[in-house]
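pasting for ref
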Amino acid sequence: MLLFFVSTLISLSLACSLLSAPEPTATVVPSDIPSTATIAATPTQKPTSTPRPTATAISPTSTAAPVGVIVANEDYEIDVVKVRKLGSVYLDQNYIWQANPGYLFLELGVKVTNKKSGVVSVPWQYIYVTDEEGDSWYPGWGGFQIPTAGENISPATILFSQIHNSEERVSFTDVVFLRLIWTIKDNNPSTVLFGFDTSPLIEVVID
């Protein structure tokens, strides 16, 4: 009976894609099961209809900028402030993900400044990376925090959760800090292009 219960829990599948791409799976680890008994996660593809094309007065940069260079258009100013390669994604003692062979977890910390007036609201599916094969993906996990005036937030301190609905939105007025995690192919090194809605792209190299 116990083996059946554990087997049932470990087979739990959590989907976060709008397409028929490989779905990420989570492992529910009961307190009496070692945390190493986890099942791997695979990438979740973002619909090809996003990100939306931009029609801004200020053209995006013609080529992607490297990490450390702030990019901007008339809508946003984007700064990738943190890049980490992860071996596992740990949500709590009950939810741990490990990447399948040939894949890795990419964590980005991003600061976004709104250059327009009023509140902006961006769906998770418009916060994406494009891989070397040209496929674009929204994050499997994410969180965001709005700072007080002048506050500089470390993205590593932002609480995050699994993204089940790609149409849920990140809403802010002036500045927001993002903590974003993807499962991507491990090409050693791997290169992806990060974009936020209509923003110019930033090239991220993971080695």
